[in-house]
UniProtKB/TrEMBL annotation:
VOC domain residues: 12-124
Pfam families in the record: Glyoxalase
Coiled-coil intervals, chain numbering: none
Domain of life from the UniProt record: Bacteria
Native organism: Pseudonocardia broussonetiae
Name the record gives this protein: VOC family protein
Length: 253
């Protein structure tokens, strides 16, 4: 199992969590789909529930705040969350939650990019974020699907230092982004989403069998059924709480 104990480089997607109206129902849904086991961190941390693979944290499910829509939030690593929040504002984004300390763990904030896609900021302390990668149940990829991908590229390059490369066979407005020369995800347009869909981040979780994962997703809708693509077999789902995510069988090559 590929594991990680060192902090993720600044600008790298390092964590993902789900704000759910019913955490028990969310764990019941995601356990069979992604093969997760769960650890409730307790009342002190609002029953934030870690989703684990082989005893190592891959993601989390937590209770949504009143009026908060269910959604997956992708977190980008930062060496200084307060400085990152200032950079977000300076480059046209919006800070939703100013970074604050979670004792013993790190500093967390949330923000919107210039297209309105929400993301998190995570400055590691005792917790680095994801402790497993490249394994079924772990975050494998992420797309920023934006109404203005050109402005989005400028924003993330300015705030996190990303660089970009075109992807043969992908839409013209789609590119991979790299952190320190390492490809870390993708950024592009709305990729055929229904009119009115807001900008968002889409997390892709690796699974050993895409079709079996979709079949296990009881109560989900499947806007993109299991499909073979030049980049591997994948599907996009909307969970019973209306949060979108993707499952992926692993990168080709």
């Amino acid at each position: 199992m590929p594991t990680r104990d060192a902090p993720w480089p600044a600008g790298t997607p390092c964590w993902v969590d789900h704000a759910a109206p019913d955490v028990d129902a969310a764990t019941a849904f995601y356990g069979p789909v992604l093969g997760w086991s769960f650890v409730d961190t307790g009342e002190q941390f609002g029953h934030y529930t870690l989703a684990q693979v082989g005893g190592r944290s891959a993601a989390a499910l937590g209770p949504a705040q009143p009026g908060q829509p269910a959604a997956w939030t992708l977190y980008l690593a930062s060496d200084d969350a307060a400085a990152t929040a200032r950079a977000v504002t300076e480059h046209g984004g919006t800070v939703l939650v100013e970074p604050f300390e979670i004792p013993g763990n790190g500093h967390l904030g949330t923000a919107l990019d210039t297209s309105g896609a929400a993301f998190g900021i995570w400055q590691h302390g005792g917790t680095i974020g994801a402790e497993v990668h490249g394994e079924p149940g772990a975050l494998l990829w992420e797309d920023a699907r934006l109404t203005d991908p050109v402005a989005g590229q400028e924003f993330y390059a300015s705030v996190f230092g990303w660089t970009y490369d075109a992807v043969p066979g992908a839409p013209d407005d789609y590119a991979t982004f790299s952190v320190g020369g390492e490809i870390a995800g993708g950024i592009g347009g709305m990729m055929g989403a229904p009119a009115g869909t807001p900008s968002h981040w889409l997390p892709y979780f690796m699974v050993s069998d895409v079709d079996a994962a979709v079949a296990a997703a009881v109560g989900a809708s499947v806007p993109m059924p299991p499909t073979d693509t030049p980049f591997g077999r994948m599907a996009i789902l909307v969970d019973p709480f209306d949060a979108s995510f993707a499952v992926h069988g692993g990168m080709e090559g």
